[in-house]
């Protein structure tokens, strides 16, 4: 898969690549954060049409998320997001999305660095560039897509242009999913407090219509599609990992580099991979999970490429190892008072008899099922006994998943 990473000029214009003077393309446009089942339906349609007509399949992605850019600009007199500022609500970082697009069979991915100047480009200009520079023959969009300045390029307006000019065709995919739900505008972390001995749950599932109205009014919850990145973030914040995975169509995952931690797990007989900050991807609620630890190799070999690089070619991702794991997210309440360390950390204990040295390696942590909330234990022995139980649970869950 060829990748182009483009940086708009000060006036928002973009130097779009010329793919081929003879061969046309099928294009879709979006953020694709999480690349959930709705996104997959759109991308799969792009690939399907492209293969049928022997055209390029092209996905245009925006990074950072437009919502993040506009929110920052609103609070900072229209300024663009600094490169050093991380988007805490990003489900899946751009390089992981690119890997997933390659797995779906996409020929060309174009990552546009989203700026406020670029946001002011009209959808008419944008469509003209896609036709003129990318040779767009078909544009594939989800049902509620909107392009260009002030999102004026609605599906209805784009269809009128396509039908009236004959320059390209519009193909609209049903990406809505099972329906709509409501999500609070701010995730405070309070939703993620799970009591000992209980499993996290989605409170909306058991609400009557009257209760839902009262809950929505109290929290000023907004109406969103169930199959949306917003709803998936909410489920992850609750710790309802299986529901989130069902919407994603795969296990939710984050990535980072293994660093030296307190090495307390080693003394307890459970050496863990301590994933250092920053972690790429959205961390679910604090707790212990069953999942997978995937070794992606030394970080200097798997690090992301320069964001402004004009062109690169992505090869297939190589896994250097994959192990069932019990995964911990939290502040280590058993020892935090003693150590004075209260930072939220991500650790994964690979369930294997082999000695693993993953320091300096980039790893992916995949979440399969919630096991328990973070608990303060009375002693190291009590914690060790619980860790043994968690490892057994995680192993059984992962083995069962492999057999499905």
TrEMBL record:
Q: Which CDD domains match?
A: FAD_synthetase_N (cd02064)
Q: Which GO terms describe its molecular function?
A: ATP binding; FMN adenylyltransferase activity; riboflavin kinase activity
Q: State the reactions this protein catalyses.
A: FMN + ATP + H(+) = FAD + diphosphate; riboflavin + ATP = FMN + ADP + H(+)
An example Pfam family from this entry, by short name, is FAD_syn
Q: What pathway is this protein said to act in by its record?
A: Cofactor biosynthesis; FAD biosynthesis; FAD from FMN: step 1/1
Keywords in UniProt for this one? ATP-binding, FAD, Flavoprotein, FMN, Kinase, Nucleotide-binding, Nucleotidyltransferase, Transferase
In Swiss-Prot or TrEMBL terms, this protein is called FAD synthase
């Amino acid at each position: 898969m060829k990748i182009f990473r483009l940086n708009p000029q000060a006036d928002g214009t973009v130097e779009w690549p010329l793919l081929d003077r003879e061969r046309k393309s099928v294009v879709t446009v979006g953020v694709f954060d999480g690349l959930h089942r709705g996104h997959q339906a759109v991308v799969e349609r792009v690939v399907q049409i492209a293969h049928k007509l022997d055209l390029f399949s092209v996905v245009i992605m925006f990074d950072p998320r437009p919502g993040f850019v506009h929110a920052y600009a609103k609070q900072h007199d229209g300024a663009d997001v600094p490169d050093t500022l991380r988007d805490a609500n990003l489900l899946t970082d751009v390089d992981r999305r690119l890997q997933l697009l390659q797995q779906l069979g996409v020929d060309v991915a174009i990552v546009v660095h989203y700026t406020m100047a670029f946001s002011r480009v009209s959808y008419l200009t944008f469509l003209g560039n896609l036709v003129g520079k990318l040779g767009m023959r078909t544009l594939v969009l989800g049902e509620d897509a909107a392009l260009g300045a002030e999102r004026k390029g609605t599906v209805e307006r784009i269809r009128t242009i396509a039908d009236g000019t004959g320059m390209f065709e519009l193909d609209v995919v049903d990406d809505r999913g099972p329906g709509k739900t409501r999500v609070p505008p701010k995730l405070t972390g309070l939703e993620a407090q799970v009591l000992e001995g209980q499993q996290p749950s989605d409170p909306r599932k058991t609400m009557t219509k009257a209760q839902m109205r009262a809950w929505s009014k109290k929290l000023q919850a907004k109406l969103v599609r169930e199959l949306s990145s917003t709803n998936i973030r909410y489920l992850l914040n609750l710790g309802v990992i299986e529901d989130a995975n069902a919407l994603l169509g795969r296990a939710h995952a984050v990535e980072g580099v293994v660093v030296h931690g307190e090495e307390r797990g080693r003394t307890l007989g459970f050496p863990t991979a301590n994933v250092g900050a920053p972690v790429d991807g959205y961390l679910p609620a604090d707790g212990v999970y069953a999942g997978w630890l995937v070794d992606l190799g030394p970080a200097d070999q798997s690090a992301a490429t320069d964001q402004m690089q004009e062109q690169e070619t992505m090869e297939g991702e190589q896994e250097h190892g994959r192990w069932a794991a019990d995964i911990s997210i939290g502040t280590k309440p058993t020892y935090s008072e003693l150590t004075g360390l209260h930072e939220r950390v991500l650790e994964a204990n690979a369930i294997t008899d082999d000695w693993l040295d993953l320091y300096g390696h980039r790893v992916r942590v995949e979440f399969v099922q919630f096991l328990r909330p973070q608990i303060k234990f009375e002693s190291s022995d009590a914690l060790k006994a619980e860790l043994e139980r968690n490892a057994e649970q995680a192993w059984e869950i992962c083995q069962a998943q492999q057999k499905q």
